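Chapter review: from sequence to fold.
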Amino acid sequence: MQKRKKTNFENLIKPIIYLDSCIIRNALNSRNKEDVTFLEELRKRKYECKTSIYTLLELFEASKDRQYLIKLVANKYAEVNEFLRKRTERDLNYEELDDISEQINSLFLKYEFIEICNISGDEDWGLVKSICETSNIHISDIIHLTTAFINNCTHLVTRDDFLIKEGNKMLEDNDVSKANFIICKPEDIMKLFPE
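The token string follows.
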């Protein structure tokens, strides 16, 4: 893994936080009040926050799956096995799709301080490939990790224990200093940067 540019002193005082899709999904569905509180705290502290276009894609996919499952169960009394079999053949109508889009877009309007960034170019995708070849991290998490890393984030915040363990191990094995980039939980950010 290539070494990241050194952070300036200001970045050591104020983190640049990449939000994994699970944090945003928890806020979208109000599944975890701690994550809603965490996002509000980030807004209050005026921390620079980023996520990726891939997060949006994951939010749309999860929301469509959820809506389709509700539709199957409510209308047809379907079993979970039927949902799993037909999941890639959803039959959501334009109104249902529009409701999903409106819900996700409203979330990003509410949390306008979250910048959407991306990876691009052969070098970035080469890094994705390299991490994929040398780690046990799931490809979707590799995309998040790479996006955070190349967009100069200091912290990737997630609730995924495996990503935290494997990602930090991979960073350490590749001599990426923990002072430059770390993967952690939301509560760790609050401990690392008490107000």
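Two observations follow directly from the output. Residues 87 and 152 are 36 Å apart (CA to CA). The longest helix spans residues 53-76.
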